[in-house]
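S.,

As promised, the magnesium ion run. Input:
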Amino acid sequence: LGPGDDAAVLRLADGAECAVTVDLLTDGVDFRIGEVAPGRVGRKALAVSISDIAAMAARPLAAVIALALPRRGGKQLAIGLYEGLIPLAEKYDMSIAGGDINSWDGPLVISTTVIGQITARGPLCRHGARPGDRIVVTGQFGGSILGRHLDFDPRVDEALWLTENYDLRAGIDVSDGLSLDLSRLAAESGCGAVIDLALVPVADAARELSRQQGATEAELDSAALEHALSDGEDFELILAVAPEDAAQMIADQPLSITLTDIGQFIDQRGLWQIDADGRRCPLEAKGYLH
Ligand SMILES: [Mg+2]
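Predicted complex:
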């Protein structure tokens, strides 16, 4: 499986399959090193790649890490990054298998490559959603800039458990925005998606961010929903689930985090919304564009 999914999938000589993903994080774009502890940055760098492995319903095995360090204070910075990164690797029983370090006159750049093992259920790809499948999401959305974009837990155990126990047809992790990443999954599957806006799980942080940006109490719900649909860096999963399995999953609530059915995939391409009055109309896919 080549470019266009959350990770590539390679078939090894003995028939086993592995997933490979890489991320590149840059000071000033993905974090501001002057404003947060280096350990949180190191943790985030590894976590975003683990999240892509989770989106494939694969098990992370190892990482290789490349650093371009600023010349001044680079060694201390590298130590700080690893102090955050190593505990996360240990949590998933992953090895840091190697990497490369350089120093230069530019800002900190950190690149993480994670290799994962595809389970017997096969990789969870973006192209498997069918009309009638439900859109099920983990957790809550919006306002990650207030801190969750650094400290989130990639949904590895959740993805592995769900793929083992339910008929998951497609999946993606939300890096750039709920509406944007859902539209990408639907497009890869050759179908459309309808979100019932009233069902979107909005994070408290999305409300808090809306308040900080001056939303009045009357504007708060719609402002927070807008953040939930478009902020990105939630690193939750969007899953396409067979209808009967989705109903079972929602009734079971088998995880420590909430699973929510927010809509369904349909024949007609594009992204759609069911508004407060129950009408279906187009929904603009918004999110972070590099
Ligand atoms: Mg992804």
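Residues 84 and 199 are 35 Å apart (CA to CA). Residues 6, 52, 55, 173, 175 surround magnesium ion (CB under 6 Å).

- D.
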